[in-house]
Amino acid sequence: MNALAGEGYEVEFRPDEDCVRMSGALRLGGLAEYAPISAMLEEALQGRERLVLDLTGLEFLNSSGIATLSRFVISARNHAQCGLVIRGSNEIAWQGKSLNNLKRLMPSLELRFD
Amino acid sequence: MSTEQADTRIPFTSGLTFRQAAATLVIVVFLGLVAGFIELVTDWRSMRQEIQQQTLATLELVRGPATEAAYQFNDQLAAEVVDGLYANPSIGQAMLQDNFDGVIAERGRADAQPAGPLVTRLFGDITDYRIDLHHGGVRPGTGELVGALQIRLDEEAIASSFMERSLVIVLVGLAKALVISALVVLIFYFMITRPLLGLHSAIGRIDPTRPGEWPRPRFRYHERDELGQIVNGLDRLMHAFQQVMAQRDKARDENTRLGAELDVSRRIQHILLPSPEELASVQGLDIATYMEAADEVGGDYYDVLSHADGVRIGIGDVTGHGLESGVVMLMTQSAVRTLLGTGEADMRRVMQVLNSTIYNNVQRMGSGKNLTLALLDYRPIGDGNGEDRGQLRISGQHETVIVVRRDGRVEIIDTDELGFPIGLVEEMAEFVSEITLELQEGDVVVLYTDGITEAADEQHRLYGQDRLVEVVRSHYREPSERIKQAIVQDVKRHIGTQVLYDDLTLVILKQR
Prior knowledge:
The complex is a heterodimer of chains A (114) and B (512).
Chain A: E1 2-6, E2 9-14, E3 19-26, H1 35-45, E4 50-61, H2 63-78, E5 83-88, H3 95-105, E6 110-113
Parallel strand pairs in A: 3-4, 4-5, 5-6
Antiparallel strand pairs in A: 1-2, 2-3
Helix pairs in contact in A: 1-2, 2-3
Chain B: H1 2-8, H2 16-72, H3 75-86, E1 91-98, E2 103-108, H4 117-123, E3 128-136, E4 143-153, H5 155-204, H6 226-271, H7 276-280, E5 285-292, E6 298-307, E7 310-321, H8 323-341, H9 347-365, E8 371-382, E9 388-395, E10 401-404, E11 410-413, E12 434-440, E13 444-448, H10 450-453, H11 465-475, H12 480-495, E14 504-511
Antiparallel strand pairs in B: 1-2, 1-4, 3-4, 5-14, 6-7, 7-8, 8-9, 9-12, 10-11, 10-13, 13-14
């Protein structure tokens, strides 16, 4: 299991569950600071048929984070062999519009709101 | 500074050295006096005993000749005995009597001064001695009483040696007190007082603005004792102060910088807004606008640009707050105006150019900033019946567009599917579409940013789209300016005393 953690957030990659779980509030400054998370997501995508990105515990994600997720989804779209599922929460305000935009970037993306 | 230093000057009598000397002196003198008094009393007692024993021994010594003289009425022998006794300077009077109290021989000082009261008090009770003289007894006190030998001691003479000794004791005691005080003061001065004075002067010279540079004193032989510890402790304290002050200064500078940045952001946001004259000159539309920056300025954007065929209205919201958001908003404003100048009417192409302009610049900035942006193209269309109408094309993803028709019907247009966040991804043209509305006279269109609908009250309840729609519905018959005022007042009432967390932006369009 790989994990990245910082002040107020945690990103865990569980290869055996085909799952990356992001939780807390992510407000890193700029795209460069999101590079390790970006790398972890890309790594999770490799050689996998299905990947679940669990955002149900991610209370806040700033614009650089949303940009990082958008890039990741485009990358997943371009590597069509891996099915991507994103789990979000109706309780969390930022997710509604942003996750729908991700779905528009990748129509095969499966979006599940708890 | 000079007055503070004057305050640290200590009057001599309040100084440590003086007080130490005075205290030591008083204590040593007092103890010396007590010890001297005890010594004198002991002395006095033993002296009295000694005098009594010596006197009695002296009398015993002459008992034999005296008895003989009294028994034989030998005046010459009697005179010798009495003279012999009287030769002792401490004996003031000597007298030999027969057994009928007749004086056989007597010597005395006629000029003897009466003794002082102190002397009488000390020795007055042991001056008189008398021994009875018996003749023929085996043991003293037996045999026939033949007379008595009497002496009286000279009080002054026996007291004088005592008085001399007293004087010596007192003087020595005083001298001892002085020497001990001097020694104590000297030892304490070198061991404690002098370093303390040095420390005191060092503390007095601390510059309150730079405590870390205080003149730290170095005391030889005190590195490991309490004084050394005090100096070390103070040194650490001063450096801690210095550090805190440096942090405070840094925070203040940072605040100043942020404050300046916010001022710049605030100016950026307002510097390119359309003037009331521009708005008033728009054909066919009664337009009112409102923008209020949050405490931490956000990136709200709106613009109303007239051109030959009508007017283009833009409204958007750059993510985040501060200077960067302001810069992105400024770039958007210029790009929108530039694209209008090229005469490009295809919204998909307009959005694509805007997106790639902003995307590439945001990449340079290394930030993930993006913005929601709706562009509305308004074109007046006359129907020839004297009634004005207009056509409104809406494109781009932003908040909803609220339309209240002249008959009070409300239409809410969701713009999510009309576009995509600008600057978020490299290609987004495929997500752009547009819808077209026809506006009749009296129809009202309200554009806003999420600062309005997400304005929170004290219980963190959001203002919300429903309440916004209600306010518009209650005022849609009034001019745009009045509708705007009603909304702003209601939002402000909702916010109450809460801090404004996001910019508030409103654009009201009403078909004339």
